[in-house]
Amino acid sequence: MSLQGQVVLITGASAGIGREIATRFAKERACLVLAARSEDKLQQLSDELTAAGSEVLVVRTDVSDPNDLMLLVEKSLERFQKIDVLVNNAGVDCFHHFEHLEMDEILQTIETNLTGTILLTRLVIPHMLEKSRGTIINMASTAGKQCPGFASVYGATKAGLIGFTQGLRSEYEGRGITATAICPGFTQDGGIYDRMVQSTGKKTSFALGGTSAIAVANAVLKAVRTSPPEMIVNWPPVRPAMILKEIFPRLGEMLANAVSRKFAKRVADANAAEAGR
After folding, report:
1. Which domains does the chain have, with CATH numbers?
2. How confident is the model over 84-97, as pLDDT tens digits?
3. Active centre residues (catalytic)
């Protein structure tokens, strides 16, 4: 399946996973719409990709702002007249002691990670239906499959994205629109995990593993071509443990806590110290 000339809209495109996804699609000669809050970083990436021969539109966007989302879709259609692929990649982490979280932090996490994705998809899908084709990629997380302690709000948003993806697949089956949830583990060169390692001085355990921004970008490209329901991107593989959790929930919970709780607590403690809580 050739992606040349396909219009790909990517949120959270200014750094980390989003930047790698944009670079990967540019190599496929796709037309790109790059959205994020950091216009300077977006423009820098645009200049690089344009110099390499890509057609790029930059739109500064805060996905938690519905007005920004409407403007993003409007400008995308004005420039390219269509949106073939929507990559809902924008997101923020929220690793904290739950009792310390402020209300605005909870709302910001939900609005950025989940509500923004739902609203943007709602704006894009009618235009995909006009063409009888389209692909939605939702950047979830292994935290949406098994949420670690100290990340309850973050995990809830990612689990919501998985459920949202499942609903879209069912509703638009046979109408030319597909959706896939990408579920990375802790991602090197992805921004969030790198900040965690920097703040704690520790990496995740080998049993929990992780992945890279390049591997996630490759998974997104594969998902556009093959349309699986979800893809877990992590090494070592964690799906067997997740299947075990479904069969033996208490045992699965114990194993998940054993490999993830200590690291997540370190991150929450570091965030609490930084915030003076």
Report:
1. 7-275 (3.40.50.720)
2. 999 999 999 999 99
3. 154
